[in-house]
Amino acid sequence: MSMNLTTNIGELDTSSVQLWNDVLAPKFIRFKHVAADGLALHSEAVLPNLPVKPGDRVLDVGCGFGDTAIKLAELVGPDGEVIGVDCCDAFLIHAENEAAARGKSNVDFVCCDAEIELPTCEFDFVFARFGTMYFANPVAGLRNMRRALKPGGEMVHIVWRERSDNPWLSMANDIVLRYLPQPEKCAQCCEPGPFSMANQETVHKMMRLAGYTNINFERVDAEVVIGNSIDDAIAFQLALGPAGEVFREAGEAAEQKRDLIEAALATAISKQKIGTFGIMMDSSSWVISATNPHS
Ligand SMILES: C[S@@+](CC[C@H](N)C(=O)[O-])C[C@H]1O[C@@H](n2cnc3c(N)ncnc32)[C@H](O)[C@@H]1O
To answer: Which of 20, 124, 257, 275 shows the greatest Cβ crowding within 10 Å of its Cβ?
Structure first.
């Protein structure tokens, strides 16, 4: 299976692509049990109801470790096919290995920057779980996703709602900010960031500008795993997400205050619920669906 793109691999070397590959990928791999597996309830709530049928061609944008692409491959069956795209090689290698281990021959993975280029008019359905919030130019990325659809094709993307409904990220961020400053200019942040698509009105406008019709927002509240122990949860929060960015950007100042910050995080995290897979906290996402109009 192949996907034709005219962008050379070298052209993908933007600062955000470099950040995903060099800085974030090793941390996401270490915390895959939180950063991917721990968020599964947000896609499990919607996967069975997606407008995907056997034989469909489906694109999963910002597919990461490939778990939703593999689940979509089950929905389209042997006569359909799924392509997962991501700008990070390390994730795609993991995704390919996972698909091979599960004997899935109807899913393939391709390295590309969805903001620069996606194929046109090829897919019945386009999906993205927690990938579109990182588009530096969201309208361009969303427009490329629309153009990837056949006329009349549908898309669903899942994004975080506002930070106050996502204490799994905001609680640690608030604690870290008691000790360290909010970076004014962030050298190594995955901007625009997890809450960049939280505002329904703004995202509705982005979707309209990208050319979609039938734009709908559905709220999904779910508990997510933040770590398999208090130490694991602290390490996750100081590595990834908004708290991790503040900590990383502060450099030596952060290391000097590490003990204080870890103690404050331990106190807050020890008050959270324990579930089957570890420490759980509340989170909330938008499931946004839309159509590529016929003309
Ligand atoms: C938070 S992760 C989500 C991964 C996966 N969808 C999941 O739910 O586990 C965001 C993903 O989007 C990818 N990404 C960010 N910007 C991208 C872009 N412009 N083009 C393609 N992939 C992108 C990152 O490499 C990363 O794998």
So the answer is: 20
